[in-house]
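One record is kept unedited as follows:
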Amino acid sequence: MRLQNKTCLFLSFLFGLLLLSNTKSLAQQNRDISITKTVDNTSPTEGNNVVFTITAQNLGSPPVRNILINEQLPSGLTYVSHNASDGTYSLSTGIWTISRLNGGQAATLTITVTVNQGTGGTSITNTATLNDIGKTDPNAANNQSSVQLQVQFDDATPPGSPQNVTATAASGGVITISFDDVDESGSGVATYSIKRSALQGGPYTEVGTVADNESTSYTFTDNSASDGTTYYFVVTAIDAASNEGANSLEVTATADASPPLLQAATVTGMALQLKYNEALDANSAPSAGDFTVQVNGISRAVDKVAINIENIDLTLASPVFQGDNVTISYTGSNIIKDMAGNKAANFSGQIVANNSIDDIAPGAPQNVIATAIVGGNIQILFDDLDEIGSGVNSYSVKRSTSSGGPYTQVGTVNDDESPNYRFTDNTSLDGTLYYYVITAIDAGNNESPPSVEVSATADGVSPALESASVKDANLQLNF
């Protein structure tokens, strides 16, 4: 009898040690300090101030003590001031010390610095790092955060003037301006401004810009010139600090008479519009039979044609839907003319930009199933949904604790043309009965009616050992 008592006491002692060890191990695993860093301006000008904000948050449940975060300022930045919501920051060591963070608690440190002169055109990376990775925090993935500054030049010197500027009249009444690249030390040339006047020597008005992409030369087409008019052009260079250089040498060209040119073709529903570069003669309106319209490779009849200044408006026999491919051809027996009588050219297979909007919602998703799974999560299964027109883009998973709603979205699933889809709701509370519906959303942002409602109860409780007993050679564990 004494031997049995001693054996029971010894087994109880071992079980207590095992339970204590597991409790400590679980607490250790639940520790998770996350570090995030932001800055109020990622593209500061040298000489200006920026403010870094570092946030440390305890994502675990047990409190964590003596947290050390390395926030050493990199070269190119000069310290101005700091403010810590909790703990202390040492400029000399770059260490932010927080004595304790309870589960879910966060602390912030803001540091104001000056971006040093001479750093323009460079990038500066500032990183905050949790010092004790791998000791009290087993999750190293969120223990470091960085931001990068792209420093702009503090430049007050304008670039030089563009060289080898030429102006050439081209067909269609346009004038082409060509000029060489301008190199500038410092912030560098960003854009070129093309300016025009109907008078020699100006005053000039900007008619367009060209971005500097380090090509050896650039070309700008002035398609706003009037036939028969002589224009005078100059070009200026503008650097990244918005300094504008002096005018180039003036060049000149006279716009040449030309036929009306098709600029764009667009369609919205049943309205197809051809836009030309100048006003058209309303008396030269073509007939519906002069056009051939193809929608997804199939002919679409034209019911009506009308000229509205520089536009030709066609009314189709039936609407075009979002996502349809549309082309148009013109072989006119009734010639399109401009106000001066210049004839427009025929064209074939012109691609039409489709601006049609899909306002028809898809159908409701089918075969929706909700199943409680391990860990207290609930898994939702449903079938793929096909839609004519813009097509389904995504599915919205919605949840309620009441049958019939109201429902709140808990997640989305992208439509990748799989036969069916799976969504896991990992925000469910143990023992709670949830009701789910699914809706489909197409590329036109139209949302379907909800699916049939399904339900499941979250079960995240593992079997718990309640007691253990031994009798003779039998050991019994009760859960």
